[in-house]
Specification:
With about 270 residues, this protein is mainly alpha-helical. Helix content is about 70%, strand content about 0%.
Length: about 270
Amino acid sequence: MKNITLIFIFYSFTFNSFAVEKEQTTTKKKYEYCDASNEYVAVFSYLQEHKEFGLQKKELMSISDQVTKGCSGAAKRFIIVVDNLIRAQLDSASAVKVGLEFVQGNNDQTEAFIEVFKLAFLSKYLDLNIFNSIQLARDLSINFEGNPKVVKRDFSEITKYCIFEAKLSKSQCSMIAQDIVKSSAIHDEQLTESFERFQEFLTEKGPKLSNAQALNVSQKILKYGPKSAENFKKAYRFAVDENGLKLSSEDALNFAAKISEESLREKAL
């Protein structure tokens, strides 16, 4: 009986030890190691050099403290954002405030912010005022759940195509680029190449639309995910084919658009 009891106690102890060890393993924290002093010194020195900001020592210390909490790379992100906004003639207090928003972010978000801001603000592109440019850049970087690398590339390409090739108004291009990019980034797929091929199909190989008409079609279709453009092309070809539906070009466009809407659906849980 004693032997049975001892065996039971041993197995009970072993099981409980395993359970505790497993619990400790699963709840183990992951740490990030930060060059905190480098970050602090970099920001403090940067702000101190810019005497035109009019910051007192306490303010320099406070801002440097906040940046340091963003771990390694935070100082660089902060400085890049502030520098670009100052060059765009934003007041220093507002520039610092926006810069601090990127301290806890990542480098990809910061690069997306700068790219979108430049395209939104510069007169040869969207020519928005500085406050709307900042807000648009925020919306497509730190306030956006999609892939910032995708945003950076696609927003640039689509904006430039819209302005210089399709020759639509800057306000139209702003809305179209935002629409398409938000879709591509959510699906984590760069649309630049498929977008260019789709425009080529719509303007040259398929229904031969104008650049502006093709861009409007892309805006409606590409939101249905990375397979939408290819589905549209296949459906259009089938619709106009003599061995297919033999539809007119206009009816084929409507048919292809309808089929493309089925390119995306939510997975059943």
